Amino acid sequence: MSWLPIPTGSHFSIANIPFGIITTAADQTPRPAIAIGDHVLDLRAFGSGGGFSASPKVQERADCFASTTLNAFAALGRPFHQATRSYLQSVLAADTKHPELLKDNQQLREAAVLQRSEVKNHLPLAIGDYTDFYAGKNHAYNVGVMFRGPANALQPNYTHLPVAYHGRASSVVVSGTPIRRPWGQILRPGDTNPTLAPCDKLDLELEMGMFICRENSLGAPVSVNDAEQHIFGYVLMNDWSARDVQAWEYVPLGPFTAKNMGTSISAWVILADALEASKGPGITNDTELLPYLKQDSKDNVLGIDLEVDIITAAGKKTTISRTNSRNLLWSWAQMIAHHTITGCNLRPGDLLGSGTISGTESGTEGSILEQTKGGKIPLKLEGGEERKFIQDGDTLVIRGSFGSGDSIVGFGEVSGTIQAPLPLF
Amino acid sequence: MSWLPIPTGSHFSIANIPFGIITTAADQTPRPAIAIGDHVLDLRAFGSGGGFSASPKVQERADCFASTTLNAFAALGRPFHQATRSYLQSVLAADTKHPELLKDNQQLREAAVLQRSEVKNHLPLAIGDYTDFYAGKNHAYNVGVMFRGPANALQPNYTHLPVAYHGRASSVVVSGTPIRRPWGQILRPGDTNPTLAPCDKLDLELEMGMFICRENSLGAPVSVNDAEQHIFGYVLMNDWSARDVQAWEYVPLGPFTAKNMGTSISAWVILADALEASKGPGITNDTELLPYLKQDSKDNVLGIDLEVDIITAAGKKTTISRTNSRNLLWSWAQMIAHHTITGCNLRPGDLLGSGTISGTESGTEGSILEQTKGGKIPLKLEGGEERKFIQDGDTLVIRGSFGSGDSIVGFGEVSGTIQAPLPLF
């Protein structure tokens, strides 16, 4: 398929072409790249070397690949993203019509084609606002039972609108960034006054993230059937959560410090077009929706296979969850339509999270809180250790992909290792 | 006091020296300025003309005044802000030791001293994240009674920690920007299904806003007694709220679309040092606080006199509220300490809101929701009109100041006019 060797099973097949921001030891200026098999193509170097010259449309705006983030590329819109992806696929194809551009251009290959293991990834976009939805109905139900009992697990609004809250944009970090176990205010069982202590119930949240590419003006809602044109692409997300801090602080205005110690995202943004084929029905919603949430198609929820590994400090790996992103009640288009219905302006680089994705069966939950029933039933790990929640030195890894064989469209992974808490002041 | 004529009663006395971003008809590039009486001093022009040459310390970093936002100036830290303010006061003083710099420099005065009425203000800083606290205890109680009844008006956590939630940074606009009445999901009394309709209960929230100047790293909390060094300055804020949308959507994750149609801030940032003298005790908190929230001084809450006017489409003005910013349970330093306790990184340009400021008596409330007891008792306005909530064409104006006579440190105002809703799609 490509003249570059791509291992079978690679997440970064020629069907994918995901975009990220890299640096190398030799050049510390962040710049756009695509991942392809075990390599990356440095798009700044590729552009400088005339790589885009066979596509006048892409060449005309190729200055966006000299930027330190993907925001400029994103803002050019989906037709441009698709043109760029198709062009790069054609350049990388085994039967490329332009071998002189890269395949047979030894000098440019040396400058622009790098080993993926030798580059460092950075946040792909400068994030303006970060919004976290709560579209994983199974998760919302499971957690609602624990926090409020089965009768009030899901609020009356839950099936009428995509519930969401604003998250913290500054604390979003790229995969591989260590996360410090936080101190926080915690109300211990039986106490009437809170304690300041290191979080004792640190958890992951398995989510998908989506980046916005097209701006809408303040006061101008986006219609649900136009919303897809506002989607740049997708990442995996781990919205680390301090459950003990959250339980004490979240009423009445929602989670705040319990989520601000960090949110990890995968490094490579999968373009919206690359995942169109994965779409299908999400969780059935029997509620009659208001017109602004009704989509032309009901098969509009991405279907990404997702897995969560925990790797202990001793190096033992256990896959603790296997699920799929179809376990969402709302499509991204519906989330955009609701986000903007009162006039909120979205901007290129804004990040939206799906909410935690859980299936209905044991071993498909997207949080340890659910897997251990709130810390009551420990997870048994390879090597004999147990976990009620995440311990210092544990590494959590989320992987996600669609397809198989030589045409996988995958995210790679988002990983993070928990560091012991620092002494306070 | 100044060789420039400053009207008695001006909010922008020589004791103030607030910073903002301006453009003029002749020059559309945004640039920093200070307000002084009925004039502004264009700091880019002042710097280009050698205005900072008598202060080596300020001159060395005066390139920050060629920026299109105040972020670079803010990031230089409070000692630099204070040095700049003192220097500008000395240049503007009637007995200035350097009359050749501006007072007697006709050419530079023409280039840099502009009529305030002839400049257009822009957002003073590029806002990274926007957090809204809930520190107005009287407001929290009044609204809690309406939403949850007197027994649950204040949650058990309320006096232990400064409750807050993340707001929407992209929809923060500068004073004077019109606000479009939003459509939104509303559950009408007696209905079981929501309706999509223009907001019928549009309200203001009288708040103070604070901008961050010093960054802390992710994972590194700021101690309460260091927190003042992270404060750049203050603005007035109107956090417009769609009460009917809010009531339906806010459980369990807090307000979302009900607040995203716009948040208005005043144009001139009052430096932290300029308001030190206004500090005193806030609302008494009898709860024993955890050490990270205990401040050396208890007299640490700003005392700003605040007023709210409503001006109808017919041009009739009524002052509907008079209160003071001492009606807060927490100081800004405590809010920063809590915001960062789990490791959240704050960045220069981040905006924090105080929460709605209400006194305990009738006519001191910071929202119409409180004044009309949830829309039950209409406000009687000048000219004979009544209001249960804000109507299309109404202009809401918040003013705030400290001091009197020729040494007022004031904010000017934050105003916004409500526009009729647009048809949907």
Question: What do you see in this structure?
Answer:
The structure is a homodimer of 425-residue chains. With 425 residues, the first copy, chain A, is an alpha+beta fold. The first copy, chain A, is 16% helix and 25% strand. Chain A has helices spanning 43-48, 56-60, 71-75, 78-92, 106-112, 137-148, 243-249, 332-340, 368-371; strands at residues 19-23, 31-36, 39-42, 113-115, 120-122, 130-133, 164-166, 172-174, 179-180, 183-186, 195-198, 202-203, 206-212, 231-238, 241-242, 263-265, 270-271, 305-311, 317-324, 351-353, 379-380, 386-387, 395-402, 409-419. In chain A, the strands form six sheets. In chain A, strands 6, 7, 8, 13, 14, 16, 17 and 20 form an eight-stranded mixed β-sheet that branches. Chain A has a five-stranded antiparallel β-sheet with strand order 4-3-2-1-5. A five-stranded mixed β-sheet of chain A has the order 9-24-23-18-19, with no helix packed on it. In chain A, a hairpin with a 7-residue loop joins β1 (19-23) and β2. Chains A and B meet through α6, β7, β9, β10 and α7 of A and α6, β7, β9, β10 and α7 of B. Chains A, B: Pathway: Amino-acid degradation; L-phenylalanine degradation; acetoacetate and fumarate from L-phenylalanine: step 6/6. Chains A, B: Residues 132-401 form the Fumarylacetoacetase-like C-terminal domain.
